[in-house]
């Protein structure tokens, strides 16, 4: 019987290792040995102590997966080079799904609060066949159109077994687009295909009712005690700053600065990753707690269900028949600024919007308020 030829196992030029840090974390790095020369590449990715913590364990698994993708890239580049295959850019070979794993770990490092949006996007893309095999650098306008089409007509939500609402599709496309922008910032030679779509091809955010508090309702809240003082203060601060709940959770005392006697909040927005610097009115500064250490949270909020329950009971106690959320607080801030005569461009900058068209929604709310005011006059004199 002929002896089978033993398969040659490819040499492992790149190994993934870790170095323990003083704070207990482990820094991941690549140990690269090639042509008798050893070099190291630190990935700026970290494993955190688990201590029977399920969340920490899952975070470490995700980090290791992303690090393994990079290790595999470096290994393949060396093997191809030895085989005489030139590859000027390993990045051109990276799969879209692998980039999203790396992107997710980057968001985790920044303690991004809405990481579930990326998880949901990855889950949907895993079911969309063209995305499973697509390279990051190969996605184009046709891919973007196909994905939007899939969300509109083929994808069925695993929750409730129903089609997605238009607003949900907008959220998924926005999350996808932001992830691509992050890849471009990281040096990948691609163009965001969603920016190539015409107005007719884009998913439009439906005109939706923006719940906000009138000045009278805001005053009612201010004089009505909230069962949880910390939640009440954080909510009123949002009404006077326009910050999202994710940004308020991430707000540290080092983010509250003073320049020429004016207080500012300066931070990177959790949703967009963009830097925001907004002046804080005196009323906002009256609300916040006593200053702590630079790294301490300004507001230490409980879980979202606890926040929502307390806001509901607070509204009832104040005699306000509206569903209070931190979105409502942000809408209140925007509407208040426009009502008091602030121009649209300035309001868009205060909210951290990249597009004035997004802020235009609030201008329509103010316009409706003006029409309602005129109708009140009509009612009085047409009797």
SSE ordering: EEEHHHHHHHHHEEEHHHHH
Q: So how many helices? A: 14
User: Roughly how many Å apart are the termini?
Assistant: 109 Å
What is the number of independent domains? 2
Low-confidence stretches: 83-88
What is the alpha-carbon Rg in Å?
A: 26 Å
Strand order within the widest sheet? Answer: 1-2-3
For the sheet with most strands, the description reads:
3 strands, antiparallel
Structural class: mainly alpha
Mean pLDDT: 81
Percent strand: 5-15%
Number of strands: 6
Structural account:
With 383 residues, the protein is mainly alpha-helical. The chain has 2 domains: 14-196, no CATH class; 215-381, Orthogonal Bundle (hpI Integrase, Chain A), CATH 1.10.443.10. 50% of the residues lie in helices and 11% in strands. The chain has helices at residues 54-82, 96-109, 116-127, 129-133, 141-153, 166-185, 215-223, 229-241, 245-250, 282-287, 304-318, 326-339, 344-351, 356-381; strands spanning 14-20, 26-34, 37-47, 256-259, 262-268, 275-279. The strands form 2 sheets. It has a 3-stranded antiparallel β-sheet. A 3-stranded antiparallel β-sheet has the order 4-5-6. Strand 1 (14-20) and strand 2 form a beta hairpin. The longest helix has 29 residues, at 54-82. It starts with 13 loop residues before the first strand and ends with a helix. The model is unreliable at 83-88 (pLDDT under 50).
Features:
383 residues, mainly alpha, hpI Integrase, Chain A, 2 domains, 3-stranded antiparallel β-sheet, 6 strands, 50% helix
Write a compact overview of the structure shown.
This protein is mainly alpha-helical and 383 residues long. It contains 14 helices and 6 strands. The protein has 2 domains: 14-196, no CATH class; 215-381, hpI Integrase, Chain A (Orthogonal Bundle).
């Amino acid at each position: 019987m002929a002896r089978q030829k033993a398969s040659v196992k490819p040499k492992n030029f790149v190994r993934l290792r870790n170095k323990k840090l003083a704070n207990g974390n482990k820094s991941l790095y690549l140990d690269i040995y090639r042509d008798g020369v050893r070099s190291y590449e630190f990935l700026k990715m970290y494993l955190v102590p688990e201590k029977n913590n399920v969340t920490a364990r899952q975070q470490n698994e995700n980090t290791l997966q992303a690090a393994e993708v990079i290790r595999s890239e470096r290994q393949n580049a060396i093997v191809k080079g030895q085989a005489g295959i030139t590859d000027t850019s390993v990045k051109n070979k990276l799969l879209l799904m692998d980039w999203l794993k790396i992107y997710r770990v980057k968001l985790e490092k920044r303690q991004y609060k809405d990481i579930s949006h990326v998880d949901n996007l990855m889950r949907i893309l895993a079911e969309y066949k063209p995305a499973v095999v697509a390279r990051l650098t190969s996605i184009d306008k046709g891919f973007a159109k196909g994905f939007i089409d899939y969300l509109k007509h083929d994808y069925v939500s695993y929750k409730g077994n129903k089609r997605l609402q238009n607003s949900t599709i907008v959220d998924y496309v926005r999350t996808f687009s932001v992830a691509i922008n992050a890849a471009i910032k990281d040096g990948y030679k691609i163009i965001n295909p969603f920016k190539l779509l015409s107005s007719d091809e884009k998913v439009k955010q439906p005109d939706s009712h923006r719940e906000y508090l009138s000045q009278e309702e805001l005053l009612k809240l201010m004089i009505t005690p909230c069962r949880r003082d910390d939640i009440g203060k954080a909510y009123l601060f949002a009404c006077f700053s326009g910050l999202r709940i994710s940004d308020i959770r991430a707000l540290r005392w080092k983010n509250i600065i003073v320049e020429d006697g004016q207080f500012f909040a300066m931070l990177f927005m959790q949703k967009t990753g963009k830097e925001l610097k907004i002046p804080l009115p005196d009323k906002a500064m009256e609300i916040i707690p006593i200053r702590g250490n630079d790294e301490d949270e300004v507001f230490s909020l409980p879980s979202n269900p606890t926040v929502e329950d307390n806001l509901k009971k607070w509204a009832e106690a104040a005699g306000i028949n509206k569903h209070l959320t931190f979105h409502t607080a942000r809408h209140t801030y925007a509407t208040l600024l426009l009502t008091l005569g602030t121009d649209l461009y300035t309001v868009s900058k205060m909210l951290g919007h990249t597009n004035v068209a997004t802020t235009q929604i609030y201008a329509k709310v103010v316009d409706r308020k003006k029409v309602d005011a005129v109708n009140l006059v009509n009612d009085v004199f047409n009797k």
